[in-house]
């Protein structure tokens, strides 16, 4: 099948190879959560909710003086065309949960408990910590729960989940080193394509999902389950990074707009 | 820039699923007219001064593609909605349209109306997809008109009456194809216009001259819905319709549902199906299953009969055995157990254009010069085609190309239209051209883009090449080549050096084509498309441009050339001690012909180094060959014919069988060894994407004709394995020297052809090469003339770490596609070569009626098929005058002989007979070779 | 607000998002909502909010400014018109009662928000006969609805609905007084 029309250069849905789908982000969609966001990439729609920082509920889970980030990914039964009941915690969702958790852990500075916050920052300033682990200076262990649910799936759910989680974390006021954004890119019909939709995703070609810290230019996620020659891979990855940056730019806009409105409400 | 619009689509995937897809509408799609002031004109394709821009409707593209391909039609806008519809309806037309749109000489522009924000239309409630698409076309036409203003006329070309009416109502100028072409004032273009008989066109536009035969000749095709349900419940069977190459009134449909081939006899049962169509077949009641008619002559009033042709070289070329296994007890009436059927519907047409000539007819009077003529295809499987022409007198003695348009059940013949003229009938160039076209061989000169990829000439070995650490300097070796005389594309050379330990170092050096043909270049694309060089009797159609084929890559003597070498250390017993591969630079010291090489080896007085090397190589080759045969390799024979061509007139002076010498076998042996070594190496490195060559074992049914013949002459053949077969072929020695060869020829034609494949597509047990009895085989040794070898060179270079593996190898389906194309091209090249030989045979015998000896290879009820060893041809000899079916000859199937009733005159299979060969012309413009018994 | 007193200068008041560069660590100390990047040089934001720079006292040992990001979540929830809040009465006057907002919906606020319940907003009927002193006492916990952003100092609150009003109060004798809607109270108390 031809995924890029050789005559017009358009993809099946009318995008050019370097075009992203339309993205939209909205903050504060779950009132109960400490932070929440909705993120859409084309027809992929994902909701994320953050609970915490709160005290570790299950003491058994806390380990090694380490802040606990938990993530639960799930797909709504109505998210795809066929409404099959999918079991909770199947391999795929466990894997994606893990991927999102690791990606987000890489950017969350720590839970900042209101009272120990200052001490902790001091601590951070003086002793630089390892990438993922933040040792807490005190007895109190906290956890952050990230729930992401796919409401509508049309390819690139993993990226959309990460973007939604970022927005939600920022909304929850959890300190982060940077905004993590993610975007996928693939290689079909001998062309690198940005932001694959479901049809392109299921074409079976190589598909690279990249997550980056936009300002600091660090890669926090890189996944590909196919073989690709190095030079092509670099092109594809570069394309995905461009996509991530565009998303980061958009997310910043959403956050700033949201903050402006809040400030406005507070009457400052 | 992006605007999103989702639309809802329901598809059937067992269940009804709602599919929601995004559809982006954009404002950065340009109109393609250079005169446009709003759009970016850098990508515009239409001509500068276009006063009229044509927008074509889907039905116009589908039916009038031949007209569109004519250079007189230009400045055409192809809408993406049209493109999409064409793609869904007819892929071959789509590919032709695509070629038009990408051809830089033609002014065809693709406008993505479906993604343009102003021309996208949403399906309205109650509107059929067809109406919606028609509306989209009109909206786009309207947009163009208002976009480009009054100076440019936008003309919508449609044959759909409703669409045209609406367009005119909406203020768009619209015309039918006929009236537009007429307005151009070029009468010859009108021949290209397909006159559709459907009600789409206003009757005033079409002058229906067709003889009004209202008799229904064929039964109506069943509607698609009925066919689908019939297929589902097993009443009908789906399959590809294949017409017997040797009898156009008999066809086979391979059906998976009944696991056998359904035979279809006669035009009525074939019900307008063409060769290659996908059809639905209904089985006839069992009592109508004909017993296999082993008549040569066909049943219809059309006097078509089996031609003399070149003896087939494999089962793929040979006619399928018509008669099934006959019950040995002769009391049982010969009821066939082979299902017979009739076509009830055509699922997919395989119509394309055909080469041939017009059936001679008198010039009709009056009628404004419009004449109806019957076209007779060169391909006997194709029925006659009725065409309409205004240039009858020009066409009568020409080879022309005709395309099929329709075939309704009222007319005996399909109707079609003239496409173009090739040339004078009987002219050798015309006929050669015809056989190239028939076999889909691209003989056009290479394009400038392709030629631009060539290195600057004159080319010589540069110091950079030598400085390359991956390239070994082997110029000091005594390398020489042995090829057929006059060979200019020398792609292999050898060397043989005795080592101190008594072993030999043997090197096979293959032209390093991949050093010049880089992946992804136009040169590479072209070579990949052509797939192979084609050798005709009088000319060669190269895969690579001439400078590469004959000079830069060719390993000529006394020049330094780049090579890819396989170097073995071999014991005197020809056991390979070690193998290594390297890119190299060589300098051949001699380019010998087989005859020269043979003469040198045979002349015991010569003791020069090259001759010694030759003798050493020959000794090794003999051992290798023996070992290979012991392992079970088949020594097969095919009657290869060689022409002596007059250098000035290019007419054949003499023909004879190609003689195989020891030197040929010596070279062959080392090439085989090199190919096997390379196959092992690349498969080891790239188990999933190596290009290999396999030869499937023949099935029992395929060997059936051979076994029957063997049984008739009391020969016991063991076909349980290639080894057993090889051994029993060796034992089959008759009283005359040609007997063994004849048996081998018969055996060869029971085999299928070897094919290329990608190692990822099959399991390792299927890699086996039956004929060579090799577990692995590939083609490495002829990269100048075969693209498969180019691929294998790249694989080997990547396996050695010299070069990177091109990305194409990562793409499984694409690699499979390449392998399929190579097989297709390879086969076509062979067919073309054979056709060329047949053509020249005919030319040769035109002036020389000859008496010669022939061998009977097949017994029929009214005659037999003979094989003429001297000329390698095969053809029928009739015992009964044509049309006389009440034969007094009796066929004895078990003993494969035919006896005249009441006499002792009988003919046995493989018997030698004397025949007379003469070219006769029973139908004008169709000369053929006739064989008669003396 | 306390922070606002000592601010001013470079890029102050600008909105930032996590990861954004706030300055160089040789000139800046990362305060709340900011961190020093692993390279030890740049100071970056870790929250979304307003950038605030506090300049050091002229005699301080460290002459670097402190840069902070004041995120909205740092203030906790923010009352908005229409949201139900839990307040503690601080002062009762003849026509108004002022109160501190403690919770917005179910979430505790992190900063001090003041609200005012005006006489006409205490109940829906007979609004002119309301006696503020009989309605509220300082220390009462009251469930109220935010009517509007009010004036610069305080939100306007209302208790003029059945489900609104005092939920917990202390008598002068320090006895616990139960409100008229026991059910709501227990629920709300748990939220508090």
TrEMBL record, chain A:
Q: Which GO terms describe its biological process?
A: nuclear mRNA surveillance; poly(A)-dependent snoRNA 3'-end processing; rRNA catabolic process; U4 snRNA 3'-end processing
Matching InterPro entries, A to Z? ExoRNase_PH_dom1, ExoRNase_PH_dom2, ExoRNase_PH_dom2_sf, PNPase/RNase_PH_dom_sf, Ribosomal_Su5_D2-typ_SF, RNase_PH
Q: Name one Pfam family in it.
A: RNase_PH_C
Write out the GO MF terms. RNA binding
Entry-linked SUPFAM superfamilies = Ribonuclease PH domain 2-like, Ribosomal protein S5 domain 2-like
The source's superkingdom equals Eukaryota
Q: Where is the Exoribonuclease phosphorolytic domain?
A: 20-175, 178-243
Q: Which GO terms describe its cellular component?
A: cytoplasmic exosome (RNase complex); nuclear exosome (RNase complex); nucleolus
Recorded family membership = Belongs to the RNase PH family.
Q: Do you know which PANTHER family this protein is assigned to?
A: EXOSOME COMPLEX COMPONENT, EXOSOME COMPLEX COMPONENT RRP41
Q: What is this protein called?
A: Exosome complex component
Native source species: Canna indica
Which lineage? Eukaryota, Viridiplantae, Streptophyta, Embryophyta, Tracheophyta
UniProtKB/TrEMBL annotation, chain B:
Segments of this protein annotated with the region Disordered = 301-337
Can the keyword Translocase be found in this entry's annotation? Answer: no
Q: Which InterPro entries match?
A: Dis3_CSD2, NA-bd_OB-fold, PIN-like_dom_sf, PIN_dom, RNase_II/R, RNase_II/R_CS, RNR_Ribonuclease, Rrp44_CSD1
Q: Which residues form the signal peptide?
A: none
- Short name of one Pfam family: OB_Dis3
**Keywords, sorted A to Z:** Exonuclease, Exosome, Hydrolase, Magnesium, Nuclease, Nucleus, RNA-binding, rRNA processing
Note the Gene3D superfamilies from the entry.
2.40.50.690, 2.40.50.700, 5'-nuclease, Nucleic acid-binding proteins
GO MF annotation list: 3'-5'-RNA exonuclease activity; endonuclease activity; RNA binding
Q: Where is it localised?
A: Nucleus
What residue stretches are annotated with the PIN domain?
52-165
Question: Which coarse location class applies to the principal site listed for this UniProt protein?
Answer: nucleus
**A cellular component term (GO) from this record?**
cytoplasmic exosome (RNase complex)
Q: Which cofactor does it need?
A: Mg(2+)
Q: Which GO terms describe its biological process?
A: nuclear mRNA surveillance of mRNA 3'-end processing; rRNA catabolic process; rRNA processing
Q: Which family does it belong to?
A: Belongs to the RNR ribonuclease family.
Q: What is this protein called?
A: Exosome complex exonuclease
UniProtKB/TrEMBL annotation, chain C:
Instruction: Domain (Exosome complex component CSL4 C-terminal): give its ranges.
Output: 106-149
Q: Which GO terms describe its molecular function?
A: RNA binding
Q: Where in the cell is it found?
A: Nucleus, Nucleolus
Domain Exosome complex component N-terminal, by residue range, is 15-54
Which CDD domains does this UniProt record tie to the protein?
Answer: S1_CSL4
Q: Does the keyword Cytoplasm apply?
A: yes
Q: Which UniProt keywords apply?
A: Cytoplasm, Exosome
Q: Single GO cellular component annotation?
A: nucleolus
| Any one biological process term the GO annotation gives | RNA processing
PANTHER family named among the record's database cross-references: 3'-5' EXORIBONUCLEASE CSL4-RELATED, EXOSOME COMPLEX COMPONENT CSL4
Protein name per UniProt: Exosome complex component CSL4
């Amino acid at each position: 099948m031809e995924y890029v029309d050789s005559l017009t250069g358009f993809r099946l849905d009318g995008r050019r190879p370097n075009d992203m789908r339309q993205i939209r982000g909205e903050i504060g969609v779950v009132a109960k959560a400490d932070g929440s966001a909705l993120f859409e990439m084309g027809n992929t729609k994902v909701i994320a909710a953050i609970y915490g920082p709160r005290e570790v509920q299950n003491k058994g889970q806390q380990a090694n003086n380490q802040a606990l980030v938990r993530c639960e990914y799930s797909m709504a039964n109505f998210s795809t065309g066929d409404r099959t009941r999918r079991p909770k915690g199947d391999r795929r969702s466990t894997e994606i949960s893990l991927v999102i958790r690791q990606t987000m852990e890489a950017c969350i500075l720590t839970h900042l408990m209101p009272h120990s916050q200052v001490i902790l920052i001091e601590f951070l300033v003086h002793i630089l910590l390892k990438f993922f682990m933040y040792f807490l200076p005190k007895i109190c262990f906290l956890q952050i729960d990230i729930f992401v649910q796919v409401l509508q799936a049309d390819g690139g759910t993993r990226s959309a989940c990460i973007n939604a989680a970022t927005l939600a974390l920022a909304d929850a006021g959890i300190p982060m080193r940077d905004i993590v954004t993610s975007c996928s890119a693939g290689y079909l019909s001998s062309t690198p394509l940005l932001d694959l939709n479901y049809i392109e995703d299921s074409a079976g070609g190589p598909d690279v999902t990249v997550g980056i810290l936009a300002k600091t230019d660090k890669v926090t996620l890189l996944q590909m389950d196919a073989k690709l020659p190095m030079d092509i891979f670099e092109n594809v990855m570069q394309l995905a990074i461009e996509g991530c940056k565009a998303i980061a730019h958009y997310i910043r806009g959403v956050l700033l707009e949201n903050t402006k409105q809040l400030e406005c409400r507070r009457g400052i | 820039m992006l605007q999103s619009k989702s639309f809802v689509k329901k598809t059937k995937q067992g269940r009804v699923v709602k599919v929601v897809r995004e559809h982006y509408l954009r404002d950065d799609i340009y109109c393609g007219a250079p005169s446009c002031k709003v759009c970016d004109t850098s990508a515009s394709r239409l001509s500068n001064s276009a006063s009229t821009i044509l927008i074509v409707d889907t039905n116009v593209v589908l039916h009038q593609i031949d007209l569109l391909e004519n250079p007189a039609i230009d400045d055409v806008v192809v809408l993406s909605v049209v493109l999409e519809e064409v793609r869904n309806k007819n892929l071959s037309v789509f590919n032709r349209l695509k070629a038009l749109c990408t051809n830089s000489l033609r002014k065809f522009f693709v406008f993505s109306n479906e993604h343009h924000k102003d021309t996208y239309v949403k399906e309205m409630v109650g509107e059929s997809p067809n109406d919606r698409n028609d509306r989209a076309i009109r909206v786009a036409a309207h947009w163009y008109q208002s976009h480009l203003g009054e100076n440019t006329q936008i003309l919508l070309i449609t044959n759909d009456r409703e669409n045209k009416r609406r367009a005119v109502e909406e203020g768009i100028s619209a015309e039918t194809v006929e009236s537009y072409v007429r307005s151009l004032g070029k009468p010859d273009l009108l021949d290209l216009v397909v006159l559709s008989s459907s009600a789409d066109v206003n009757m005033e536009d079409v002058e229906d001259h067709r003889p009004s035969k209202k008799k229904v000749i064929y039964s109506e095709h069943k509607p698609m819905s009925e066919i689908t349900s019939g297929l589902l419940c097993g009443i009908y069977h789906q399959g590809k319709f294949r017409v017997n190459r040797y009898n156009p009134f008999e066809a086979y449909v391979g059906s998976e549902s009944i696991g056998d081939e359904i035979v279809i006899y006669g035009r009525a049962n074939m019900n307008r199906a063409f060769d290659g169509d996908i059809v639905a077949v209904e089985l006839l009641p069992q009592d109508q299953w004909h017993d296999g008619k082993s008549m040569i002559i066909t049943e219809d009033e059309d006097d078509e009969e089996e031609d003399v042709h070149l003896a087939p070289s494999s089962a793929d070329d040979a006619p399928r055995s018509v008669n099934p296994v006959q019950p040995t007890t002769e009391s049982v009436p010969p009821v066939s157990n082979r299902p017979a059927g009739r076509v009830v519907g055509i699922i997919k047409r395989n119509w394309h254009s055909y080469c041939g000539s017009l059936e001679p007819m008198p010039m009709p009077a009056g009628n404004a010069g419009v004449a109806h003529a019957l076209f007779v295809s060169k391909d006997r499987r194709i029925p006659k085609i009725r065409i309409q022409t205004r240039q009858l007198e020009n066409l009568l003695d020409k080879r022309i190309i005709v395309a099929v348009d329709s075939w309704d059940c009222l007319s005996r013949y399909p109707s079609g239209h003239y496409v173009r003229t090739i040339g004078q009938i009987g002219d050798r160039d015309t006929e050669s051209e015809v056989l190239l076209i028939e076999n889909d061989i691209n003989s056009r000169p290479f394009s400038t883009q392709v030629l631009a990829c060539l290195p600057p000439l004159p080319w010589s070995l540069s110091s950079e090449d030598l400085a390359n650490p991956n390239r070994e300097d082997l110029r000091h070796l005594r390398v020489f080549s042995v090829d057929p005389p006059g060979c200019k594309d020398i792609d292999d050379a050898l060397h043989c050096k005795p080592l101190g330990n008594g072993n030999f170092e043997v090197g096979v050096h293959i032209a390093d084509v991949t050093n010049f043909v880089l992946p992804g270049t136009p040169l590479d694309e072209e070579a990949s498309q052509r797939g192979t060089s084609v050798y005709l009797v009088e000319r060669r159609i190269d895969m690579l441009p001439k400078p590469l084929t004959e000079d830069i890559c060719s390993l000529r003597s006394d020049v330094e050339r780049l090579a890819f070498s396989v170097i073995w250390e071999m014991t005197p017993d020809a056991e390979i001690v070690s193998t290594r591969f390297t890119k190299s630079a060589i300098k051949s010291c001699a380019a010998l012909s087989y005859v020269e090489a043979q003469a040198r080896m045979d002349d015991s007085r010569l003791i020069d180094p090259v001759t010694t090397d030759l003798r050493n190589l020959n000794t090794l080759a003999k051992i290798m060959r023996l070992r290979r045969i012991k392992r079970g390799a088949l020594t097969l024979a095919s009657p290869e014919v060689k022409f002596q061509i007059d250098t000035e007139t290019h007419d054949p002076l003499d023909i004879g069988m190609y003689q195989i010498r020891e030197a040929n076998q010596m070279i062959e042996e080392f090439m085989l060894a090199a190919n096997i070594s390379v196959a092992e190496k690349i498969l080891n490195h790239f188990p999933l994407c190596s290009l290999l060559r396999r030869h499937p074992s023949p099935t029992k049914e395929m060997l059936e004709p051979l076994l029957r013949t063997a049984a008739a002459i009391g020969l016991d053949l063991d076909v349980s394995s290639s080894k057993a077969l090889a051994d029993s072929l060796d034992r089959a020695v008759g009283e005359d020297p040609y007997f063994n060869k004849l048996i081998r020829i018969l055996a060869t034609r029971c085999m299928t052809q070897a094919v290329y494949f990608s190692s990822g597509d099959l399991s390792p047990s299927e890699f086996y090469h039956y004929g060579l009895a090799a577990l692995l085989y590939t083609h490495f040794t002829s990269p100048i003339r075969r693209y498969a070898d180019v691929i294998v060179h790249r694989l080997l270079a990547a396996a050695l770490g010299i070069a990177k593996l091109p990305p194409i190898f990562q793409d499984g389906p694409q690699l499979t596609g390449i392998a399929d194309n190579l097989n297709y091209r390879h086969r076509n090249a062979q067919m073309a070569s054979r056709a060329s030989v047949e053509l020249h045979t005919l030319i040769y015998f035109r002036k020389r009626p000859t008496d010669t000896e022939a061998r009977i290879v097949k017994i029929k009820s009214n005659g037999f098929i003979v094989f003429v060893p001297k000329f390698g041809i095969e053809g029928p000899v009739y015992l009964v005058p044509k049309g006389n079916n009440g034969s007094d000859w009796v066929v004895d199937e078990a003993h494969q002989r035919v006896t005249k009733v009441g006499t002792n005159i009988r003919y046995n299979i493989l018997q030698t007979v004397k025949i007379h060969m003469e070219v006769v012309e029973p139908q004008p413009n169709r000369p053929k070779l006739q064989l008669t018994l003396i | 607000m306390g922070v606002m007193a000592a601010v001013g200068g470079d890029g102050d008041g600008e909105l930032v998002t996590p990861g954004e560069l706030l300055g160089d660590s040789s000139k800046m100390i990362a305060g709340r909502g900011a961190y020093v990047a692993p390279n030890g040089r740049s100071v970056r934001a870790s929250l979304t909010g307003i950038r605030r720079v506090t300049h050091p006292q002229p005699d301080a040992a460290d002459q670097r400014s402190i840069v902070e990001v004041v995120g909205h979540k740092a203030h906790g929830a923010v009352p908005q018109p229409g949201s139900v809040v839990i307040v503690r009465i601080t002062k009762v006057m003849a026509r108004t009662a002022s109160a501190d907002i403690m919770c917005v919906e179910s979430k505790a606020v992190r900063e001090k928000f003041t609200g005012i319940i005006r006489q006409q907003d205490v109940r829906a009927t007979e609004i002119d006969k309301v006696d503020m002193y009989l309605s509220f006492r300082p220390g009462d916990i009251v469930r109220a609805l935010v009517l509007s952003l009010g004036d610069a100092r305080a939100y306007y609150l209302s208790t003029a609905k059945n489900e609104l009003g005092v939920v917990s109060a202390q008598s002068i004798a320090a006895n616990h007084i139960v409100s008229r809607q026991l059910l709501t109270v227990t629920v709300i108390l748990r939220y508090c």
